[in-house]
Amino acid sequence: MNLRSSGTQAIRIEQDVVLARQTARKLATECGMRLVDLTKMVTAVSELARNTVVYGGGGDMDWEILDDHGRVGLRLLFRDEGPGIPDLKLAMTDGWTSGGGLGLGLTGAKRLVDEFELDTAPGEGTRITITRWT
Taking the complete model, does pTM exceed 0.85, yes or no? Predict the structure, then answer.
C-alpha cells in the first residue's frame, strides 16, 4: 500500500467542524469517490469532528489518500487528548446518544465507512480511524 498524500486539519472549535467536512469532501472527490460514498464519508466526518470538539476538547484530523494496488482510499484519524470515552460499550450501542449531535453516534459513523478503529481510555483521549475505499 502506498501513501499518495497526507496532512493534518486542526479541529479546535465548532467552525473547524465545517472545515473538516469541506476538507473531507475535497479529498473524497480527489479519490474519485461516487457521490453516495462521498456523502457517507462527509456525514461520518461531521459526527466525529463534532465529537472531537465537544467531548475531546478539540484535537486534529489527520488524513491520508491511500493507493492499494490501484484501489484508492481515504483514511482519516480523529485524535484528541480529552477525557476518553468512559463507557465504550454504551457509546457503541445503536441508538445511544449523549445528546446534541446528529444522532448517529459512533455506531452510525462506523456503518458509513469501510473500516473503523477506536482506541480510547479514561484520561488518555480518543483516537478514531475511518477509511473508505473507492
Answer: yes
